[in-house]
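Lab notebook: predicted structure, single chain.

Context: the supervisor wants predicted structures on file for every construct in the current expression panel, including those that have not yet been purified. This is the next one on the list. No modifications to the sequence; it matches the entry in the shared construct table.
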Amino acid sequence: MRLAYSSALAAALLAATLFCANLPADPSLRLVSGDPEGGDALAAGSWKATLGFYGDSPASQSKRGSAYDILVAKDQGAYEGALRQASEARPDLVVAAGARFARAVDAAAAQYPDQNYLLIGGRSDKPNVMCASLGEAEAAYLSGLAAGLKAKDSKIPAPRFGFMGSETGPEATALELGFAAGVLAALPQAKIVDFYAGAEASAAGMPELGKVQARNWYDSGVFCVFDAAGRTGEGAVSAARQYRTDGKEAWIAGEAPREAGVYDPSRSASAVIATISAEPAKAILYALGALRDGTFKGGPVAFGLASGGASFSIDASDFSKGIASRLEASGRDLASGKVKLYSRYSDALAAKAIPEGLQAQDD
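Prediction complete. Output recorded below exactly as produced.
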């Protein structure tokens, strides 16, 4: 049995088809993102939603290049060029998948004031930029809470918890703060440690680096690692599964599968406490619908966990009924605003909601 908070992605893609049917012509779109096949979960979700909207698939991309296209920008030096190239194509909508693109989007939006942009996960004050926030941080909070409660339930003495990211920045910070807040809600005295692989590892993907770091953590008493490190994080998953096979308390949580079976709790010696995934389809469809209706405007729009902006799931058989019930209640508290999460480390520190000494960065 699984406990899950998830958007109905299939229904969203069906809605996309209905949008298309009501339009005299499909709106055109250019997606700027990281590599959807390189461990970037948000890029993968955005690309999947784009293909679904136009009735295409990874194997059949008949409308690519005309109705839609993707420009992959793997590092910061490529962001502005990719946004400029996408804008020069003059699509109805340019989508930038990730807060890392915020500055490049601002520059493009100023240069092309008549172009409509959707920035997923970031912030902009430009009038032609719609900024969609997703519920990944909420899902990370539930992951941290699940990990903390499981450690408490298992009577682990002085457990530690690790966050593994690719590069520092606002996206990773929001996830780290969410995960840490969830852990601390269960175990207020818990120790949080973090590690960022850096730009080179993020671009290339270095599983061995993630594996070595995870092993060091598990050997030093880390109970659960939250993996947000793309391909590098697959090494952490491998380490967790090996330690679990050996009967040790070594667990993993994090972004949804990048490799078939990696996060499948049905497999023997599962090391998975929780999985989360960004669900950008709803934001993309919302922006396209606003263009269709003539109501598109810049500013923030929110798609939290409850409204399908992200998904969270656990294998309930790994948890007591009491833990599963608390996770359900906490999901409702997140939706109602009873639980406050911070997206900026400086704000969390000022509120004394998070420990000092983490590598998280706001910009």
